[in-house]
Amino acid sequence: MSKLEGKVALVSGSGRGIGRCIALKLAAEGARVVVNDMDEAPASETVAAIRAAGGEAVACVGSVTATDFAERFVGTAIGQYKGLDIIVNNAGYTWDNVIQKMTDEQWYAMLDVHLTAPFRILRAAAGFIRQASRKEAEAGSDVYRKVVNISSLAGIGGNAGQANYAAAKAGVIGLTAALAKEWGRYKVNVNCVAFGLIRTRLTQATAAQGAAIDVAGRRIEVGVNPDLLQAVERMVPLGRGGTPEEAAGAVYLFCTPESDYISGQTIVCGGGFMM
Question: Per residue in 64-108, pLDDT tens?
């Protein structure tokens, strides 16, 4: 039997990149996955890939920053699969600038997507988790649920030009530690994975080439200078950036039964590189 057989997982931002790989990995191990993306097409593509491989998945399309999203997301899992066992707060993007040029819009955009959205999703899940935990305790059943929040090396050591992103990702680590203490009584393991350099569309492209993403009609330039990218990779002890599949593997570790006595921790998935 697969390690996650019968489990129900929420994975935000899973239409593309690392999130897609997380959803595929959890599904391959038996989880039924609620896939999310701002856009319907990538969400549907991830769902189709999971189903084609013999797994179960459904999409919940929308921005994680919408005030009604968290309830819809959690409600989709409970309504579709009658349960909720794993929550992966992965959705996000970067919007960089030095502090003297950073606008309030840039600041709050990063806090909203990286910190407020996970808080709302976890708050929306609290009622179900508490009730399910009580019933399982009365039945003498040991059921451990998993929360995996996604942070970054920027949240641990900071990064020039990313005051907004670094602050939000540092907040995720604090949220993880606090919730591990609140939800331990419900047998919920709450942990965090901080990514180092992972090769995705946000790092592969070069901003100078005009690469950008669209977020709610807002054009955000993305990318890393190739020379800087090479310099960073040379500092990684393993000698390269990670793949989205490797990033997904780090998240998966915290979703398995082997993590049942690990909670409140932040591990770095960065090839040995630490800021």
Answer: 999 999 999 999 999 999 999 999 999 999 999 999 999 999 999
pLDDT tens digit sequence for 145-198: 999 999 999 999 999 999 999 999 999 999 999 999 999 999 999 999 999 999
pTM for the model stands at: 0.95
For residue 165, indicate whether it is catalytic: yes
DSSP-derived secondary structure for the chain:
--TTTT-EEEETT-SSHHHHHHHHHHHHTT-EEEE--SSHHHHHHHHHHHHHTT-EEEE--S-TTSTTHHHHHHHHHHHHHS---EEEE-------B-GGG--HHHHHHHHIIIIIHHHHHHHHHHHHHHHHHHHHHHTT----EEEEEEEEHHHHH--TTBHHHHHHHHHHHHHHHHHHHHHGGGTEEEEEEEE-SB-SHHHHS-GGGT-EEEETTEEEE----HHHHHHHHHHSTTSSPBPHHHHHHHHHHTTSGGGTT--S-EEEESTT---
Q: Which of 81, 165, 186, 252 is catalytic?
A: 165
Domains and CATH numbers, the chain: 8-269 (3.40.50.720)
